[in-house]
Amino acid sequence: MRAYSAESLVLRTYRYGEADRIVVFLTEDRGKKRGAAPNATASRRRFGGALEPLTQGRVAYVEREHRDLVRLDRIELRRSPMGATQGRPVDDAAHVLGHASYFAELLDEWAPESSPNERLFRLGCAVSEALCRGGSVEALARYFEYWLMRLEGVYPSLAGCPRCGRPLDEGAALVAADQAYVCWSCTPGGTRLSGPAVAFLRAAGTRTPTDVSRDAAPLGLLREIESVHHALLGLHLEREPRSAKIVRELRPES
Fold first, then answer.
1. Do residues 140 and 209 touch, judged by C-beta distance below 8 A?
2. Which pTM value belongs to this model?
3. Mean local confidence (pLDDT), 16-38
4. Residue 43 domain-assigned?
């Protein structure tokens, strides 16, 4: 038996018996863990409001040999997505919390069990911080999707058309069969991105999530990128993320 303490991101929780919860959380140094949090529904001192998806906190836990579940002793809250709802209208606040669950679900899908992925952890923390600072949650979502797939090595190149070599400055189309962005001249179909959408994605490679959410891009451009990214995510996950549908349903009227 060995005790650990680490900065973490809560990815999801579910009930385990009457008052206990199972908590899936991501740490920088030891990867994704699953732990039983005894009496979590009643113990505000040990867990408080630290069990929401994408919550940052310092977790204390104990691992035992030959057991898949660790035992969570407490989580010291650092940052909660609930803070991102302050000052927002009710519908907008619900949309923000839906995105927090969406980000956490995608991190959960890609984070390996008990295998550290420092860059993935840092992406989650940076997006959690940006979410709490306000700004455009949809711009933040497109940035997060781009970087998540880029870090995992599955994001198509934006350098140029793989068929003719032309730059993609005027726009691109996602060809699902090739999992590549192709210029409009080389394909009659595919999910399309305009030139400004391509420019947004290229700029995302050098910007912080806070900057992207603060300098919100036009909504129409973000919806273009959303369509392409959801197609890419569907290719790699072989399903639509559960929380993506919730995000759409909670979306305030434009």
1. yes
2. 0.93
3. 92
4. yes
Domain tally for the chain? 2
What confidence score (pLDDT) does residue 8 get? 96
For 217, the token pair is: 């891009």
Q: Is the same domain home to 112 and 211?
A: yes
Tell me, yes or no, whether 114 and 59 share the same domain.
no
Residues 14 and 120 in one domain: no
* Tokens encoding 100: 């927090």
Name the one residue in this structure whose structure tokens are 């979502």: 141
Q: Are 105 and 26 in contact (CB under 8 A)?
A: no
